[in-house]
Amino acid sequence: MRQGLFITVEGPEGAGKSTIIQKMADELAEKGIDVMLTREPGGISIAEEIREVILNPKNTAMDERTEALLYAAARRQHLAEKVIPALEKGGIVLCDRFLDSSLAYQGHARGIGMDEVYSINKFAIENTMPDLTLYFDVEPDVGLGRISKHKGREVNRLDLEAIDFHERVREGYFMLLDQFPDRITKIDASRPFDDVYQNAFDIVEKFIAERPVK
Length: 214
Ligand code: TYD
Fold this sequence. Notes:
Blueprint: E1 5-10, H1 17-30, E2 35-39, H2 45-55, H3 64-88, E3 92-96, H4 99-109, H5 114-125, E4 132-137, H6 140-149, H7 163-179, E5 184-188, H8 193-210
Parallel strand pairs: 1-3, 1-4, 2-3, 4-5
Helix pairs in contact: 1-8, 2-3, 3-4, 3-5, 4-5, 4-7
The chain binds thymidine-5'-diphosphate.
């Protein structure tokens, strides 16, 4: 039975979410909270191998439904092997991307359809949905500009998509915000890092305080 809290972070490329949740996990751990930080696609070796296949810039022949299925497969393995056991122990799981990425990227931006992508993901996740999702919002040109300045970050196959793809990703997230207003909170990630971080941390801290881990 699930007892912990499952918190996911979402957003377009260059929104700064990965740096923010790393800092957040450190700060929560310092406060004595049992927290596990993980990411999608990846988090465990089978899913990291699937990640290599999906994100390899050489794989230009990849069909969009294959892409969606691979993300769902990586998600399933990651949940079964890592996330669900941690939640069952009562911990807080902070996950960099989850289902909403598939709905926004493959469902909306790739044009497969959010309902279609949801249906294969329903098979993969069964009933494990996030308790809280932070969506870091930034305009695609700002986000992509940040990535190109950030040397050392890998440039993946999806980063290489044209700007209108990234506009559609953002539009997909806006649709999800309308659909799940209680679960997803939007954070303006165009502000300076410290402001964005504090905003995000306050939301998570309040959420944990209101729903103590049993
Ligand atoms: P990553 O390097 O982790 O990017 P980021 O720092 O932006 O999270 O690469 C993950 C990429 O995979 C990113 O471009 C978003 C994409 N993605 C999907 O398209 N669908 C998904 O379901 C997931 C989890 C990620």
